[in-house]
Every structure is written in structure tokens, then in C-alpha cells.
Amino acid sequence: MLPAYTVADIGGTSSEAWLGVANYLAVAAISPLVGSISDLIGRRYAALLGPIILGIGLIVVGTAHRMDVAIGGSAIAGVGAGLAETVGVAGLLELAPAKSRGTYAGISILVDLPFGAALTYGKIPIRCVG
């Protein structure tokens, strides 16, 4: 959770949990659309757009003076993170030889595996905020 002094500063003790939930919901909402987005604007521009949107969302969260603005910024950051993550995996598998794509996908998931518990407890988005 956010430090108590941050919550006291921007308010929103009753809606503090939405900060992480908004991020996850935005990632879940954008991920199925990433293929169509990258077909429309190109994989290169989709790969560049994800971190840009993520950065904008983090700037909004970092400069928020109210909890509802911080929650909105967290949702914007989730859209950027979902776009970047999905395009990154697609790019990795596109570069891999066809007969080895399963191996590359498995290695990619195994590299992310130790951080799964941190995501479950909401530690990653809160570090981005604070």
C-alpha cells in the first residue's frame, strides 16, 4: 500500500486500493487489442507508443494532488504497460526461428516467473508511484 503520509497528503483512504486495480484492469483491457493496434500503426510505432503512454501515466500519478487523479494516471500507465508488454513478447517471438518459438516463449515466461508474486501483492505499481 501507499505510505500513510502520501495517502494523508492526497486523500482517498477509502479508494487507495484502486490505484493498483486500475493498472491491472487497464492492462487486461488493452492486451487483446494490441495486435490490431500494431497492425494499424505498425509494430515499431506500437512498441514506441507503449513506453510513451506509460511515462505519461507515471507523470500524472507522480504529480497528482488528489487520489482520483492518481487512479486515472495509474490506468493510463496500465494501458502503456499492456501495450509495451504485449508488443515486446510478439516482437521476441517474431524474431525467433519458427521451430524454436515455443522454447523462446517458455524462456521468456521463466524469466518473468520470479516477479509473479510481487505482481500479485501489488508491489510493482506502488514502486512506480512512490
Written account of the structure:
The protein has a single domain, classed as Growth Hormone, Chain: A. The chain has 8 helices and no strands. Helix 3 packs across helix 4. With 130 residues, it is mainly α.
Using brief descriptors, characterize the structure shown.
single chain, 130 residues, mainly alpha, Growth Hormone, Chain: A, 0% strand, elongated
Which SSEs are present, and which pair or pack?
Elements: H1 4-10, H2 18-30, H3 34-41, H4 43-62, H5 67-95, H6 101-112, H7 116-120, H8 123-129
Helix pairs in contact: 2-5, 3-4, 4-5, 5-6
Shape label? elongated
- Percentage of residues in DSSP E strands: under 5%
Q: Alpha-carbon distance between the termini?
A: 10 Å
Enter the CATH topology name. Growth Hormone, Chain: A
Class per helix and strand makeup = mainly alpha
Helix percentage: over 70%
Summarize the structure.
With 130 residues, this protein is an all-alpha fold. It is built from 8 helices and no strands. The chain has helices at 4-10, 18-30, 34-41, 43-62, 67-95, 101-112, 116-120, 123-129.
